[in-house]
Write a structure and sequence with these properties.
By secondary structure, this protein is mainly α. The protein contains 18 helices and two strands. 70% of the residues lie in helices and 1% in strands. It has a two-stranded antiparallel sheet with strand order 1-2. It is globular and about 65 Å long. InterPro entries: MFS (IPR011701), MFS_trans_sf (IPR036259). Its main location: membrane. It comes from Eutypa lata (strain UCR-EL1) (Grapevine dieback disease fungus).
Length: 443
């Protein structure tokens, strides 16, 4: 059952890529509808704060530019097939990391018996991996803004692979726990790096790369502390991180709630995990809805407005998910005494609501912070993982003590409290972004 998280997170990245790709050709249309990369200050007011039209006389000798807007080496000009394979490869790394977080869970009882410890001790193998997810992004995300994506991404992939070996060959519990933590820490760097890669691959913002020497002091003060400074001063990042953390935690709690709810019906342990198929169908439906939204409403909105796309235009799917999730949780929790199909249908809408919120929320964060997207996603993943790492330890106790109905009601109430967030930012998002020191700026 835990493997659903792997599917969920991989589907999220695939959904994000589909969203970026589907609107890439409309992100900055010219008057006649053609692709336009000859930007002026007016065009780019919301896309990085570039002060004037880029030309040879404006470019510093320390800045490396593409060889014109049609440079084939520019990622945005890659052929669709190359973009597709790039997206598949990077999404596969995300799949490996998220799959690794949960794949050990079914083996906790077996390994606990093998090493003579309690199952609770072996559950730390899941918790420590998730804690590791909170370590990597705070380092790899900012460093990718300094050195580019290739080196940090290569390190995170190699570290992820290398620290699987101690776990596979372990002869004691500490080796397993340490190996799991380090594998999660290295692998988690991909979370923050890949989101920035997708933005640069599919978005049309024109930018160069600084080649001036980077001092260690600059790395520490400007980049490594940047995620913390952003989280301390950016209300958008704080609110969306809180909401998406609740969504992420709800999924982990569902891993405990769903089997418990169906075992109370007399189902076997294996059969009680089958309703997760309904959650997966809801997740896939959400990805389809978001892609359809991007190809219809969002594309039409961009075409009708000859200015830069606004991040708030990403929020309608999130608003839909915010409306769906609270009643779906209540429906699931309080339908334990009726036919089992009722809870299965509720599970579908839980997956649908969770994924709609998550895809739109991640996309909004990336759109708001643009060149600072890696740092924003880094601190987001850190906070989300720190909180979620405790969920496997108390989820079972929570549902056994409160019961499926009341525990689900608690989650529904929390979801209801956060539900106005999309509407709040739809109305006031532009004003709130104007207060930001990091939104739409070139740092």
């Amino acid at each position: 059952m835990e493997d659903v998280s792997s599917f969920w997170l991989c589907a999220t990245l695939a959904g994000d890529a589909a969203l970026f790709n589907s609107v890439a050709s409309t992100a900055a249309p010219s008057v006649n509808g053609d692709y336009n990369t000859d930007y002026t200050h007016t065009d780019l007011e919301g896309l990085g704060g570039i002060e004037k039209k880029l030309s040879e006389k404006d470019v510093s000798p320390d800045v490396v530019e593409w060889d014109g807007p049609a440079d084939p080496e520019c990622p945005r000009n890659w052929k669709p097939v190359r973009k597709f394979f790039f997206t598949v490869i990077t999404s596969s790394v995300i799949l490996a990391v998220s799959f690794g977080s949960s794949v050990f869970a079914p083996a906790t009882a077996v390994t606990a018996a093998q090493f003579g410890v309690s199952p609770i001790v072996m559950q730390l193998s899941v918790t420590l991996w998730i804690l590791g997810l909170a370590v990597g992004p705070i380092l790899f995300g900012p460093l990718s803004e300094v050195f580019g994506h290739l080196i940090p991404f290569s390190v995170t992939v190699l570290g992820l692979a290398a620290f699987q070996l101690p776990v596979a060959l372990a002869e004691n519990v500490p080796t397993i726990l340490i190996g799991r933590f380090l594998a999660g820490a290295f692998g988690s760097g991909s979370y923050s790096i890949v989101s920035g890669q997708y933005y640069e691959l599919y978005d049309l913002t024109l930018r160069g790369s600084e080649e001036t020497p980077v001092e260690l002091e600059d790395i520490v003060h400007k980049y490594l502390t940047k995620p913390v400074r952003m989280f301390a001063t950016e209300p958008i990042l704080v609110i969306f991180t809180a909401y998406l953390t609740l969504v992420y935690g709800t999924l982990y709690l569902a891993f405990q709630a769903f089997p418990l709810a169906y075992r109370q019906r007399g189902w076997s342990a294996t059969a009680s995990e089958l309703p997760f198929v309904a959650v997966m169908l809801g997740i896939m439906s959400a990805c389809g809805i978001c892609s359809l939204f991007a190809l219809t409403w969002y594309k039409a909105r961009v075409s009708q407005n000859k200015t830069a796309p606004q991040p708030e235009w990403r929020l309608p799917p999130m608003a839909l998910g915010a409306v769906i999730l609270p009643p779906a949780l209540l429906w699931f929790g309080w339908s334990g005494n009726v036919h089992w199909i009722s809870q299965v249908i509720a599970s579908y809408f839980i997956g649908l609501g969770l994924q709609l919120i998550f895809i739109a929320g991640i996309t909004y964060i990336v759109d708001v912070y643009r060149e600072s997207a890696n740092s924003a996603m880094s601190i987001h993943v850190v906070v989300r993982s720190l909180i979620a790492s405790s969920f496997p330890l108390f989820a079972t106790e929570m549902y056994e003590q409160l019961g499926v109905a009341w525990a689900s009601s608690v989650l529904a109430l929390l979801s209801l409290i956060m539900a106005p967030a999309p509407l709040l930012f739809w109305v006031y998002g532009s004003r709130i972004r104007s207060w930001s020191h990091f939104s739409s700026t070139l740092d």
